[in-house]
Amino acid sequence: MNRFLFVLIICVTMTLQVQTQDFSKQVQRFISVQNEVTAITNVTVIDGTGSAAKSNQTIVFKNGIIENIGNAADVKIPEMADIIDGKGKTIIPGLVMLHEHMFYTKPFENWFSVGQMTFTFPRLYLAGGVTTMRTAGSIQPQTDLNVKKWIDEGKMTGPKMNITGPFIEREGPRVPELGFLGNTDEVSKIVNYWADKGVTSFKVYNNITKEDLEICVREAHKRGLMVTGHLCSITYEEASNIGIDNLEHGFMAASDFDQEKMENVCDPFGARKGLYAAAKDGKKINDLIDLLIKNKTVVTSTPNVFEPYTKHEIVPGGGFDALAPQIQKRILTNYNNRIGKDSASAAMYHKNLEWEKRFHEKGGLLVAGTDPTGAGRTVAGYANQRTVEIFVEAGFSVEEAVKICTYNGALFLEQEKTIGTLEKGKIADLILIDGDLKKDIKNMRKIEVIFKDGIGFDSQKLFESVKGQVGLN
Hints:
9-stranded mixed β-sheet; 19% strand; 5-stranded parallel β-sheet; 2 domains; alpha/beta
């Protein structure tokens, strides 16, 4: 089918869905704006294209589609429109985040374990401004597919979801929720089974072989689906040359710098040692960046999950109260034990951000996500807001940071014709923020309304509804 015709069909379909959307009572309680026509006036717009912010703008959307956007003096507001005064506020596109999970860290004694957050995380993602997300590996893919279906049907509250299949992995460190490959023959079976179920991408993990990846890429690409990876046994260079679409965690998962790297073997300590020792502006990193760009390999930044402890928040983005009380106690104890002892991790955190910025500036496609796992400090929603802040702290302009977290994600998902920027004819996925991001990027935490398909959801009500429950549900 012609790509333009396909996109046109998608736009028409989305419009009809918005017009006929029937929300359950559980969803309706979070809706603050639901009109055929909405106009937000006198507002500052950061449109997601990377262009400079524009003040005194008006945006009009009808039946979930942006009908007009421009200087307030030039935009005619329809008589039937519900008008929101945007003076002192900022609008950006809805976040399109690509390394999200529906699970959260739940360790037990010396076991690393995770638990499905079926109910809290979808609300938190939307509360934090995420209107479209990709899960980056599932422990309960059928649950994720069901949640996606029920959100699309208006029965649950959350963002539009793109589901990744279960982790493709061989047995390594003990994570009981993961399935493990018995042999290479299983890879194609996993890909095709879950592709038939409706997933749109696959994620390879720490301990696979190059042959596993070759088969995964071949089978996924046959069906027009993507492959991403959190790697260790395979280097970034090897994976990029095989044809992987996406690499997760910036350069933090690269084993390319391990001078004693053995083929198809994951040595996390050797990989980390190599990363720490790598020169910030060395030939190795620069050659690797050039190779990834040449091969059009996309890199996902997940800075939240690597945030240092010293002089940083307990929960990046301020989501400590979202955690269940027993989880709060564990996180606080771990945090206090690490304060003042993480200088090496802090240095690597900043070096990775510099490498990501270099990749971006050289023309690589940098996208963003949060990965709410790790030590448990990364919480859905709060972390998404914090991600935009981190990019600005790392030296990106506000406009660049917004673009990475919106348009770049949409481009990777091949949905850039319908979402990712604020333009006439696109779906009305946008965030209304109380304050000026250009004056203070931490105003990102003052989201008032998240419009998804033109329907406005109350951010604070969503956050409050699951307070104290993360880690339980």
